[in-house]
């Protein structure tokens, strides 16, 4: 009989939760499970969506913090003076904790795609993309706050877009270059951004949608004026705001396999133990603690912690010192149980069945609970 986690992956495909999936479970640094379902193998890169926020953007922040080039108290006024967030006193910590007061999401692509239809032509020169990038960057930085900063945690793509621009300015290179040099290389990751202008073949990569722009996510149906859709090429980032930024953004854009996601999760445990490949352990301990300033917030610096209803299930994080992780819109997730020394990485392309397909909400917690049970770790840490 196959492993119970493999049975769950196969059932997820059969039940329509996702067309394809990978999962890797590590315990005390050793692989406890690796499996795939659907037309993929264990090295197929998936669109990692908002895992970009932790694997790239938060990791780069920690790298810069460890080098003394930036820190939680760094004000946006130092980097982008005169912008609404800067004038409100927003710091990088506010962006990382999702307490900046910026809105959760705005459709920046909806102004650009109809106005610059040549973006859909693979022969469009890079200069056009650079002009669009500058226009979108300006619009993101001009965004006004929706509430006072530091009083409420509201998960914000806009905040992480601004954070990505801030790190590019401080560290002196585009995010994809910074990630490759300062995160992927020291951690041994294969994950990469896939620039639209690079025109890298995407055949065989799990499709997350077939048109551009993507259909509105639940709750976004009235947030932009509809305009004609176009076919979407395989291997392009799912997120439309990341797409108009040439596939490289602080909130989304990374592609990689579950094996890579798990390797990053193990790196978190290793960094806490003093590996020092990105930042000293004391900085990691500060970064992974929940925000003490906003009552009830589950947010750490860039990372999330389990909160009901938790995608991590009922066991992961239920023992001191808890767990950290993140999810992604395309159907991906990473959870690291700090006490059990357990890493669970799951990658799927659930949006290929439509953005309203929410079956993964039930699948994720069941999968994580099964992972803990398979290792008989329900009642005790590692």
Please outline what is shown here:
This protein has 382 residues and is an alpha+beta fold.
CATH topology: Beta-lactamase
Quote the beta fraction. 5-15%
Q: Enumerate the strands of the largest sheet in spatial order, edge to edge or round the barrel.
A: 2-1-10-9-8
What portion of residues is helical? Answer: 25-40%
Cα-atom radius of gyration: 20 Å
Reading the helices and strands in chain order gives HEEEHHHHHHHHEEEHEHHEEEH
* Arithmetic mean pLDDT: 96
Unreliable stretches: none
CATH classification, class level: Alpha Beta
First-to-last CA distance: 27 Å
Instruction: Please tally the helical runs, counting DSSP H or I stretches of 4 or more residues.
Output: 13
Write down the domain tally. 1
Structure overview:
The chain has helices at 4-14, 51-66, 76-79, 84-87, 92-96, 109-115, 126-141, 157-171, 175-187, 240-243, 258-272, 281-287, 360-374; strands at residues 21-27, 30-37, 46-47, 192-193, 211-212, 230-231, 254-256, 323-328, 332-337, 342-348. It has 382 residues and is α+β, with helices and mostly antiparallel strands. A five-stranded antiparallel sheet has the order 2-1-10-9-8, sandwiched between helices. It has a three-stranded antiparallel sheet with strand order 3-7-4, with helices on one face. The chain has 13 helices and ten strands. 35% of the residues lie in helices and 12% in strands. The protein has a single domain (4-220, 230-374), classed as DD-peptidase/beta-lactamase superfamily (Beta-lactamase). A hairpin with a 3-residue loop joins β8 and β9. The radius of gyration is 20 Å and the shape is globular. α2 (51-66) packs parallel to α8. The model has no long low-confidence stretch (mean pLDDT 96).
